[in-house]
Amino acid sequence: MVTRTQKFINRAKIFFGLQSITNLANNGRVNKTVAKLAQVLKINVLGWANEAGEIEQLGKARGVKKARQNLLALLEKHNFDGQKLVIDHVDNQVGAEALKELVLKKYPAC
After folding, report:
1. 47 CB contacts (<8 Å, ≥6 apart)?
2. I want to staple 67 with a disulfide (CB 3.0 to 4.6 A). Which of 9, 20, 44, 52 is the partner?
3. Cβ distance 90 to 17 under 8 Å?
4. How high is the mean pLDDT in each 10-residue block of the chain (110 residues)?
5. CA angle (95 as vertex; 29, 73 as ends), nearest 5
């Protein structure tokens, strides 16, 4: 059981898209002015938990639609080829469904 779990952990990759970086600003990780500007310009931050387990920014996109497209491109860049995918969200069911449709359009068997 431990070996199977360890193999899963080694294969799993966590990617994310943030529509707001307000919480990062509130925690002092991002300048509050930068967070406010990002909100006004509708900039979404894209990132992942890298192999070392650290959060790393991989890009940004202006608008939610572009963020979803860029997130799919990031998945592909990191060798996603239609295997198992879990989409999670925080108070954004509509956005999660839209991402699901985008993925299924390109990978119908996923």
Report:
1. 15, 16, 18, 55, 56, 57, 58, 59
2. 44
3. no
4. 82 93 93 96 96 92 97 93 90 96 92
5. 75
Domain limits, the chain: 13-106
Q: What is the pLDDT of residue 10?
A: 81
| pLDDT given for residue 12 in this prediction | 87
Which CATH topology does 13-106 take?
Hypothetical Protein Tm841; Chain: A;domain 3 (3.30.1180)
* Residue type for position 25: A
Q: Is the pTM here over 0.90, yes or no?
A: no
